Amino acid sequence: MQQDYSIKKLVETFEEHSKISMQHQEFANKQFLEQFPDQPLPAHMENPFDAAKAFSVMAKEICEIKEHLQLK
Q1: pLDDT in tens, 56-70
Q2: Within the chain, where are the H helices?
Q3: Is residue 2 included in any domain, yes or no?
Q4: Which of 51, 64, 52, 54 is nearest to 8 (CA)?
């Protein structure tokens, strides 16, 4: 299967992966709290960095810049 790596498709793909990552993080947090009820969530679980979201934002910015440049 051929992948579409156009910037607009990357925005969609990264947003989709971010949603999946968030769901997985919520599941992992719930599992941790069930297994270790007396322990606080570790910092990396409480406030994880979402790389897919970051890439999505960057791709959106690139789209906006491209659209702006095409208007000139």
Answers
A1: 999 999 999 998 888
A2: 7-35, 43-46, 51-71
A3: no
A4: 64
Evaluate whether 18 touches 53 at the Cβ level (below 8 Å).
yes
Cβ contacts of 56 within 8 Å, gap of 6 or more: 11, 14, 15, 18
Closest CA to 32 of 40, 20, 23: 40
b/e map of 11-33 (b: 16 or more CB within 10 Å)? bebbbebbeebeeeeeeeeeeee
Q: Is the residue at 49 inside a domain?
A: yes
- pTM (2 d.p.): 0.81
Q: Total structural domains in the chain?
A: 1
Q: Give the residue numbers spanning the domain of 21.
A: 7-71
Residue 1 lies in a domain: no
23 within a domain of the structure (yes/no): yes
